[in-house]
Amino acid sequence: MKTVELVAIITSLSGAFLFSNATNTDQPQSEVAPKAVQTPATPDDFEPIDNMHHFMEYVCEPSYKGLKQVLANEPADRKAWKAFKNHALVLAESSALVAARGPDDAAKNKEWKAISAEVYRSGKSLYKSAGDYAEAKKHYGTMLDACNRCHTVFAKGKYQLSK
Known about the structure:
Elements: H1 3-20, H2 52-70, H3 78-99, H4 106-128, H5 133-154
Helix pairs in contact: 2-3, 3-4, 4-5
């Protein structure tokens, strides 16, 4: 069979398939499943589930440790860089969530958001540096400096991260 004939057959079958699945406007349509009632979300719908210490320990700490291990030596292949990107993305995106959950005090919250923005920007740069070991190490250090600044201000110097 020639290629041209094969293409004509496939095209014909595709058209028949599309036509057979077309909506018949003469028949009433029935719903497969009822639509869920949607109510608008409010800020109260997104209250923290646990405290910030546990969030950092369970969400951020594994990625911090993973990055530290990945960057101990230059990543050798795509698989290693993929692990790097995974951890960098978790930390960068987590910093945006952390920024939204600062202290109630307005002055402290302003400082919280400023430091969170530093962590976010350096985390974003870290993520985008995948494939360039020197840049990755630089942005990793910058991000850890910002994390440690926050720990100094808001955790009385506890939980300092080492490079």
